[in-house]
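Re-run requested by the PI after the first attempt was lost when the workstation crashed. Everything re-entered from the original request form. Ligand of interest: heme-as.
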Amino acid sequence: MSIRGGLRFILLSEIVFPFVLLILGVLLGLLQVLQRAGIIKSTSYLGIEYYQGLTLHGAINAIVFTTFIIVAFSNAMVMFSLKRSLKPGVQWVSWLLMVGGTLMAAYAMLTGKANVLYTFYPPLIAHWTFYVGVVLLVVGSLVPFFFDWIPNYIAWRRENPTGRFPLPVLGVFVTFILWFIMVIPVAIEILFQLLPLSLGWVEEINPLLARTLFWFFGHPLVYFWLLPAYIMLYSILPNLVGGKLYSDPAARLALLLFLVFSVPVGLHHQYTEGGLSAGWKLWHAFLTFMVALPSFITAFTVAASLEHGARQRGGKGLFAWWAKLPYFSREGDQWLFSYFIAGLLLFLFGGITGIVNASYNLNLAVHNTSWVVGHFHTTVGGLVTLAFLGISLYMMAKLRGVEVKAKGLAVAAPYLWLIGMMVFEVAMSVAAFYGFPRRTAAGASYIDPASPLYHPEWYFWAHLSAGGGAIAVLGFVAYLVSFLGTLFARPVREPVVEFPMAEALHDEPIPVLSNLRPWLTVSILLIAFSYTYPIYESMTKGITAKSPAYGDRLPVPLKQTQTEASAEIPR
Ligand code: HAS
């Protein structure tokens, strides 16, 4: 489908704008591993304080980059699948809100007024621009769904009364319905707790309630990131290997199961939290195992699709067909395969470590250790990042009407990322067995042989993780060369919105798998059941029912007390 003018600008800038921020986000990741390993001993480097850098790293990479790419990809995919143009007015509103919100939050983080990490747990408190910025970014990302894609789908349905819900559009709708549901609790947290505290309208808030509301949002958030990658695996990947999607119904079932199970699992981030009863934590643990199910279905469907494709290319035997996959191909669009396969291999580890996290008793051993860091660098930092980098480069080339430049580097990039992140993951996981904590500038203390806090058993693993991080950054540099070459290349074709779509091998229409209503109903009932009592408990039984802000916005008497207390600490 050809695309021109403002719409083309919006789609392109939804890729380029977050990418510019991502460069900073990735460099701050490198700073993190160097500070944690003690290669940089200071907790402040180039004017960036450790927790300021960590906040920027998490917020840019996991919130800003992902949200923009998900909106850009969904815009393009819905437009391409329904063969209907988008509405420029709606897209401009969304773009302005998202870019404006990001700039507001970036101001707060860059000026050191929001060193609250991407989880913004109270009593840490940020400047109000941080919270308002986050809200605008989120609202802006929802605008196209309600005012563009849904109306387009309704119009398409009128013209195609017997047509089946296109699989990628079903995936996009599941993703954004979930997004809408999950932002309600975090919006309540921000608007009724954090923002009033930040503005000084209230003196205290309930931190347990804030954390429960945050994880009500925080876990489904990971599926907001993951589902677009799954849509790519189902609808694009099989085509790249010359095959077909093994089963369309299995893919739909997986997507719809996410709608049911993604949300009511947040307490698995709060197993160690007092004030919430064990029975409800266990209930959320059961549901967490349920939400792993659609990923197991995906593992099977994707592996079967890869096998089907490899056999079309002459692959034989039980395992020998693996050799026929286009790992290093630069032909046509096949370079994109490297991003998906490298991401999938990382996600195998992300999945296994996730299951360990979910297990109530095992979690107690790994919670708040570097294990969790390893887990999310093979999930959101693995499959999700690689799929998003690959599809960004692909869409940018099509939107600019150019060939992807420096394809060799573009293909090398995900494998370097894979090697780097694998080394990082192993190092972080093993270090966790010895209790290596997350979110700590360990290089200035625990990893420093001169420090009384020195932990020799963490030294090697922290350094190995820095090596892994450096290799991953090398992969990012390779990608950067290809990305910039493609961005500034001379156009040779009409700009288009286009994807290499795969057909399905098994494609039996099953009506319930194309109807969102029953799944959404079950989802809402399950959420209501799973969260009513934990929210009630959070409001009534928190160990610390109320907590004042920590940081600039302190009630005056308390600020004095803190200053007096810190003056008494022997130095
Ligand atoms: Fe998680 C913490 C449990 C998935 C992200 N998770 C986090 C945090 C992040 C995160 C960012 O239960 C840290 C939050 C913080 O700051 O505190 N997670 C799970 C479980 C899953 C899971 C059970 N997580 C994800 C995904 C993420 C993500 C996806 C991002 C996108 N996670 C937890 C828990 C915690 C947690 C606890 C709290 C820990 C704590 O104590 O703080 C599951 O959804 C995972 C299911 C996945 C699978 C893998 C399927 C494999 C596939 C690949 C197949 C490969 C093929 C290739 C086909 C079962 C699909 C074959 C190759 C050939 C050559 C043929």
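Saved to the shared folder this time. The first strand starts at residue 44 and ends at 45.
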